[in-house]
Amino acid sequence: MLGTYFNRLTDSISHSWNQFWFQKESPCTVSMLRIVAGVVALIYALSFTSELGLWFADGGVLPYGRTMRLTGGDDPNELFFRWSIFYFASTPLQLYLLHGIGLVAIALFAVGFQTRFTTIVATLFILSYAERAPMLVGLVEPLLCPVMLYLCLAPCGAMFSVDAWLRGRKGVTEVSDSFLAHLAVRLVQVHVSMFYLMMAFAKLGNPVWWNGEAMWWLMAQPDNRLIDLTFLRASNLRMIVFGWTHLVVLFELVFGIFIWVKILRPLLSVLAVFHWIGLGLVTGHWQFAILMIGLSLAFAPWEVLAKEPALSTEEKSSRPASREPANAGV
């Protein structure tokens, strides 16, 4: 009997593993994720436009040689490797030429034109921006870069794209389910849930999130905030700040764990919108807030919201009556 149990256990684990990773699904979700990643990537790349030469040209703040010294890239004993297409540009003209090519590639990726090719090119440029000066990396890059890599695996231009429109003009409207679409969505889901848990655990290691003051310190910074909420420092409103602080940590813990419960996905996705709008207005990290809201689409809560198809009287009568389990009363 013990051997039979372990056989069933291993069969159950292998079946669940294969069902989680290795099945086919519609490219609808991954196509929506392409739009989200493309818009955020385009905003991110455009943010370099005004000061590209000031930062990366020869004589700028971070020319190639200085970047190598600061990152340890010029040390032959270091084993890590950094690469950026902007390492091959040293003058403002060269930098802006590459920058223009990158903007075009990212825009084409966002609208879904020749997506198999433009996804790879856009990902190379996003990685190049991040790796050109890793000391400038903020909140967006650690999440945007891996999501772009995951989308390189999938047919993310199959729907909601110029490619789909061109295919429809030829009379081809059917889109087949894809294993790679499912794999890319799963990778994004796991990454996002772990990212939530990482943020929550990092906050739990900081005393200001325990004593409830963290949100006040974020509100009190005048440089980045999009809205002034410092009126909450009034003694009769301080409990709002304390409660908001603890709710931020609680939500990130709950999202990272319970987003895997399908019935809770619509609720958590809606709460994520309010969560990140609030933090985006207070901190000024609106690009990161848009990305986090958009990546909630990876969990595709729409199937939970869909109504079950109505059954006719004949279908109801033909459905076999469910029997009560034999041990229901035990």
Structural summary, described in words:
It is globular and about 75 Å long. The chain has 330 residues and is mainly alpha-helical. The chain is built from 16 helices and no strands. Residues 302-313 and 319-330 have low confidence and may be disordered.
- Judged by helices, strands and strand pairing, the structural class is mainly alpha
Radius of gyration, in angstroms, nearest whole number: 25 Å
> How many strands?
0
Taking pLDDT < 50 over at least 5 consecutive residues as the criterion, the unreliable ranges are 302-313, 319-330
Proportion of residues in helical segments:
55-70%
Classify the beta-strand content into a percent band. Answer: under 5%
Number of helices: 16
Largest sheet: none
Q: Average pLDDT, to the nearest integer?
A: 86
Shape, please?
Answer: globular
- CA-CA gap between termini: 22 Å
Order of helices and strands: HHHHHHHHHHHHHHHH
Summed up, the domain count is: 2
Outline the fold blueprint.
Layout: H1 2-21, H2 28-46, H3 52-56, H4 64-71, H5 92-111, H6 115-132, H7 141-153, H8 162-169, H9 179-204, H10 207-210, H11 214-219, H12 238-258, H13 265-283, H14 286-295, H15 302-305, H16 313-318
Helix pairs in contact: 2-5, 2-7, 2-14, 5-6, 6-7, 7-9, 9-12, 12-13, 13-14
Protein name: HTTM-like domain-containing protein
InterPro entries: HTTM-like, Sporulation_signal_mat
Transmembrane segments: 32-57, 80-98, 105-127, 147-166, 178-202, 239-261, 273-299
